[in-house]
Design goal:
Length: about 170
């Protein structure tokens, strides 16, 4: 079983105690409809190494696995997940973890893999959620060519409801 803490220092400095898998699954099941909707947007403001985002991504991918256009729709699913963490190693770990889940789920060409990496680089960000004015998130547009970065949104405007990102 994965440890819920990395060190005492990280617990005292950043409140870093990871949620156990059982609780993650139970909490995701409370919003199972949204977790099974590949387009529904999620923002994890203190994402750690991605316990919640990984579970949500797995559920989204499972929901579309036998639908047509899996390649582009799996990118849509990936692009619907946003994460912020104040510790850069957690941000890296979260991006890698989500990438591996996504990559394992299909047979993707190099261009699509590059787009997936780019989405994760942009959506899973290093920052202090308590200073939302410094955090920029982007939405995504899709066509037959794949993903293109859309409008940028300052997190503080999203919190005050002035942005257009559909954070459910
Ligand atoms: C309690 S852990 C939870 C991690 C993950 N959400 C989970 O449930 O397993 C809290 C996380 O919040 C991060 N964190 C603490 N303060 C933060 C802040 N002001 N802004 C962004 N992340 C923060 C820590 O680095 C840590 O990864």
């Amino acid at each position: 079983m994965k440890s819920q803490i990395k060190s005492r220092e990280r617990v005292s400095q950043h409140g870093e105690v990871f949620t156990a898998e059982r609780e993650v699954k139970a909490m995701c099941s409370l919003v199972s409809k949204q977790c099974g909707d590949y387009k529904a947007t999620f923002l994890e403001p203190a994402c750690g190494d991605g316990n919640f985002l990984a579970e949500i991504l797995s559920r989204k991918l499972q929901a579309i696995e036998s639908a047509p256009d899996y390649s582009v729709n799996s990118l849509v699913a990936l692009s619907s997940l946003y994460g912020i963490d104040i510790q850069s190693d957690n941000v890296e770990a979260c991006r890698d973890r989500l990438y591996k889940i996504w990559e394992k789920s299909g047979d993707f060409d190099d261009r699509t893999k590059f787009q997936a990496r780019y989405i994760l680089l942009t959506n899973i960000v290093h920052g202090d959620f308590l200073k939302p004015e410094r955090i920029i998130l982007y939405d995504w547009e899709f066509d037959s060519q794949g993903a293109a970065r859309g409008k940028d949104h300052n997190l503080s405007s999203l919190i005050t409801g002035q942005g257009v990102l559909n954070l459910e």
